[in-house]
């Protein structure tokens, strides 16, 4: 499922493309048949559409294997790809040994020294080679749109594996070939890919192409600056939507501004984020993802949402009779759309009133204004009760709220009283007899 980290990179790429009048390509990296399932691909598309991220073109790498094979053969002929016969266990031991000696885990190119006899022996054992891209041991440099000047020495990098033992090509080489064929001008990815980009640049050059421009955004951390935890389920977009009930624009509002110099605000449409986008605003420091801020933005968006934008969704969650008056009265108390069910229950269904002072509620019930009720009914009633009992402030309002709603918080009583209506209000206030 699409995770918030990947969604953020997709969003940044989309905002950049749209801000420049460019095109946004959705590419599905599905050359690994075991991990690539249609349900995941559809979930990615569904999440992107829900977030408002449309694409101009789509490509599946599994459909381009013939093209990859042709370019792979070219690189083999040019001596830039070479077969290696080490098993994953052997490579793991080599890596562990190098790290134990305080050295970087760089592949030693031992495969280049294999004799025909050694290769024949490995193949007789049933070993299938994986293939590596041979890096030139020279300086690799580029100007990154976020990180500025970036420089690597080829000698400090391991030759990357680009073809698996089963012959299927890996992300590295496939993505480079795709970028060439689709005329990609800019690639935006997480900073954990910086060293991969250095290797990719040499792949572009080995295939006779000019590398695109790159931007590497800082990764997301949790609110304390540590590794992002899974406090909100799996932190997939699908879970944030279906399990947490969040609005798409709350997620977009937060992810678009994380790690930038712009303030994080609640947006109800994506257009302002396109207009304000600039790589110059991005920091190289890790961006802190705070779930509390996500819910705060969500609440703000709901508070600014007109009834016409939610009436269909309200019907979908079982509230087809909920009207604009009800929505406007309770939306300032909502954090998520689903929270409105609680206030519908309070206003329209049976509840258990909380009555701790039956005598006070009895007096209040006697003073309840006659019908028809209007916007002044609550204030007239509260003033009458205040004058009769001498109570004021919280001692006046809280017992009335508890008796009417069974709760000690909620929408303004002036609005809530009209939603409850005379019949239910009288019925709930009459519970003072049972309390007594």
In short:
By secondary structure, the protein is mainly alpha-helical. The chain is 46% helix and 11% strand.
Model description:
The longest helix is centred in the last third of the chain and has 17 residues. The protein has four domains: 162 residues, Rossmann fold (3-Layer(aba) Sandwich), CATH 3.40.50; 81 residues, Glutamyl-trna Synthetase, Domain 2 (Glutamyl-tRNA Synthetase, domain 2), CATH 1.10.1160; 32 residues, no CATH class; 86 residues, Arc Repressor Mutant, subunit A (Orthogonal Bundle). It is built from 19 helices and eleven strands. It is mostly helical and 436 residues long.
Q: CATH fold name of the largest domain, please?
A: Rossmann fold
> What is the CATH H-level superfamily of the largest domain?
HUPs
Mean pLDDT: 93
CATH architecture field of the largest domain: 3-Layer(aba) Sandwich
The assigned structural class equals mainly alpha
Helical stretch tally? 19
Query: Could you describe the largest sheet, including whether it forms a barrel?
Result: 3 strands, antiparallel
Query: What assembly state would you assign to the polypeptide chains in this entry?
Result: single chain
Shape call = elongated
CA radius of gyration is 31 Å
What percent of the residues sit in helical stretches (DSSP H or I)? 40-55%
Distance between the termini: 56 Å
Helix-strand topology string: HEHEHEHHEEEEHEHEEHHHEHHHHHHHHH
Low-pLDDT regions: none
Q: How many domains would you count in the coordinates?
A: 4
**Strand content range:** 5-15%
* Strand order, sheet with most strands: 3-4-7
Number of strands: 11
Name of the level-1 CATH class of the largest domain: Alpha Beta
């Amino acid at each position: 499922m699409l995770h918030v980290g990947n969604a953020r990179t997709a969003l940044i790429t989309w905002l950049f493309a749209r801000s420049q009048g460019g095109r946004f390509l959705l590419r599905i990296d599905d050359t690994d048949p075991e991990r690539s399932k249609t349900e995941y691909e559809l979930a990615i598309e569904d999440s992107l559409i829900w977030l408002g991220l449309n694409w101009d073109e789509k490509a599946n790498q599994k459909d381009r294997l013939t093209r990859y094979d042709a370019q792979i053969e070219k690189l083999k002929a040019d001596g830039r790809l070479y077969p290696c016969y080490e098993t994953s266990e052997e490579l793991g031991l080599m890596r562990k040994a190098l790290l134990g000696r305080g050295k970087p885990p760089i592949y030693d190119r031992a495969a280049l020294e294999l004799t025909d006899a050694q290769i024949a022996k490995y193949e007789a054992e049933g070993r299938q080679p994986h293939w590596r891209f041979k890096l030139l041991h020279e300086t690799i440099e580029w100007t990154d749109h976020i990180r500025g000047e970036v420089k690597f020495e080829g000698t400090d990098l391991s030759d990357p594996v680009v073809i698996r033992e089963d012959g299927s090509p890996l992300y590295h080489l496939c993505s480079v070939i795709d970028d060439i064929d689709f005329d990609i001008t800019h690639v935006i990815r997480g900073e954990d890919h910086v060293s991969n980009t250095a290797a990719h640049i040499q792949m572009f050059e080995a295939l006779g192409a000019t590398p695109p421009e790159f931007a590497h955004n800082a990764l997301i951390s949790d609110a304390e600056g540590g590794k992002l935890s899974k406090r909100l389920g799996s932190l997939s977009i699908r879970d944030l939507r279906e399990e947490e009930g969040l609005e798409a624009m709350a997620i977009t509002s937060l992810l678009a501004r994380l790690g930038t110099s712009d303030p994080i605000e609640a947006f109800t449409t994506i257009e302002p984020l396109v207009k304000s986008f600039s790589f110059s605003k991005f920091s190289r420091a890790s961006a802190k993802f705070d779930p509390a801020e996500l819910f705060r933005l969500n609440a703000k968006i709901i508070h600014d949402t007109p009834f016409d934008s939610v009436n269909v969704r309200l019907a979908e969650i079982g509230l087809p009779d909920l009207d604009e008056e009800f929505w406007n009265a309770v939306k300032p108390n909502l954090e998520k759309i689903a929270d409105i069910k609680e206030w519908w229950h309070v206003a329209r269904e049976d509840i258990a009133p909380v009555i701790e002072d039956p005598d006070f509620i009895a007096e209040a019930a006697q003073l309840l204004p006659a019908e028809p009720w209007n916007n002044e009914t609550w204030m007239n009633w509260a003033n009458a009760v205040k004058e009769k009992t001498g109570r004021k402030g919280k001692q006046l309002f809280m017992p009335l709220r508890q008796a009417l709603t069974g709760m000690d918080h909620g929408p303004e009583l002036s609005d809530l009283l009209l939603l409850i209506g005379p019949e239910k209000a009288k019925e709930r206030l009459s519970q003072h007899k049972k309390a007594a």
